[in-house]
Amino acid sequence: MAIKIPSLSFYARETTLVARELLGCRLVHVAEDGARISGRIVETEAYLGVTDKACHTFGNRKTERTKSMYLDGGHSYVYFIYGMHFCFNVVTRTSAEPEAVLIRALEPLEGLEYMRERRSVSRERDLASGPAKLCEALAIDRRLDGHRLDQLPLFIETDTTPRPQEIEAAPRVGVAYAGDAAFWPLRFFLRGNPHVSKTK
DNA sequence: CTGGGGATCGAG
DNA sequence: TCGATCCCCAGG
């Protein structure tokens, strides 16, 4: 299968569909020295905008933090959480529907030594098996908030396409406060992949 | 201005 | 199970 970089129209579609189709794609950050740091996306979560109590734009909230959610699909939304971590999202649909896909885990593919320098763990499966872990491994921080994901230095390539039966759905992690939405099966991951995040 | 809480992680 | 660590944002 030929590797290509999806245009913004790929991201303008229904958010749950994008969340599923991002599985198997490759997230790439090109470092300042030109080296590629990348991993295969093995876990995602869909956040469905103004009617989704777990989404930062629930009720049409538009603040300094969430303004990237109101960009067109295909931009990044990077936010700071718990006083020390970043999380990386791909914005979907249009500026009128502020929805996004949280990238929750990667299987490291390129630049593993670079990742190990940034992360104080040795096991490969600990490098990027969580939303904040992968941001640290790929050096994604607020400077990349609002970035277009069809351009350097951070972009997404198509890679492998998982078979539908390899994709498992489950409730999202860490959103118990969100009422009914806490039970919506909007977390998608590759069944049995060791780089999927651990949940408690 | 204030303060309660968070789409997490890793040590113990 | 819990602490780290600080920004966000609703409410007054």
Strand percentage, roughly? 25-35%
Count every helix, treating DSSP H or I runs of 4 or more residues as helices.
4
Structural class call reads alpha+beta
The largest pleated sheet is described as: 9 strands, antiparallel
Morphology call: globular
- Overall mean confidence score, pLDDT: 96
Q: Radius of gyration, Cα only, in angstroms?
A: 16 Å
Amino- and carboxy-terminal Cα gap: 36 Å
Overall strand count: 9
Helical fraction? 10-25%
Uncertain runs: none
Order of helices and strands: HHEEEEEHHEEEE
List its traits.
4 helices, DNA-binding, globular, 200 residues, 12% helix, alpha+beta
Write the layout of secondary structure elements.
Elements lengths: L7 H4 L3 H7 L4 E5 L5 E12 L28 E6 L3 E8 L6 E12 L1 H7 L12 H7 L12 E2 L2 E4 L9 E4 L16 E4 L10
Antiparallel strand pairs: 1-2, 1-7, 2-5, 2-9, 3-4, 4-5, 6-7, 8-9
The structure holds a DNA duplex (12 and 12 nucleotides).
Describe what this molecule looks like in 3D.
Strand 1 (26-30) and strand 2 form a beta hairpin. Strands 1, 2, 3, 4, 5, 6, 7, 8 and 9 form a nine-stranded antiparallel β-sheet that branches. The protein has helices at residues 8-11, 15-21, 112-118, 131-137; strands at 26-30, 36-47, 76-81, 85-92, 99-110, 150-151, 154-157, 167-170, 187-190. By secondary structure, the protein is an alpha+beta fold. The protein is globular. Helices cover 12% and strands 28% of the residues. It binds a DNA duplex (12 and 12 nucleotides) through strand 3, strand 4 and helix 4.
